[in-house]
User: Fold this.
Amino acid sequence: MQPIQQRAMSPEIIKKIDDAAIIAVLVVDEVKHALPLANALLEGGVDAIELTLRTPAAMEVARIIKKEVPQITLGFGTVLTVEQVKAVVDLGADFAVAPGCNPKVIAEAYKQSLSFAPGIMTPSDIEIAVQEGCRILKFFPAETSGGLKHLQSMSAPYNYLGLKFIPLGGCNINNAPSYLQSDLITAIGGSWVAKRSLIQAEDWNAITNNAKDIRNLITTIRSKQI
Assistant:
């Protein structure tokens, strides 16, 4: 297979995600939580988010964050359709991800100049994504499909392509070190940083503390890799 040139994610967004190393996965039910949530994450050192399109409030939350907290790298998750690609582009999304690998959605993201990472869990998924020009892939669901060991074995035939992965699904502060120390990983995604229950309870201090914990861990790991 002769893979086509990487085209699905811009170099600028690749760098932002790699620098962040952590993407907070958010499910937000109320628009009023947009600003305090974004500020709580920033205070803890987390500036990249995946706002999932699972609630009626998601789009308005995104508008507010994009306008009021521009230092946040705004990503969207659960982007499943061509129409959703167009909608998040209109909102100024920096990137988007999906749980699966749909060539039509990837093609529309490319058409709209939206940096996009499809979801993969099998070698066939990887080959579809590669053929569509993707080099940054969402590994989902990470832990229930075998975690880092599964990813290492599955991706081995494709290592020469320089693929990088964003594991989501079961990642937490305890297993984060093993992922972050792997050359396969550009960033990890996790809902534990700002759980839906914490957002609903407006426990911004807990969210900031979770963000600080993962930021400190990332700093420690990267200092040892220099």
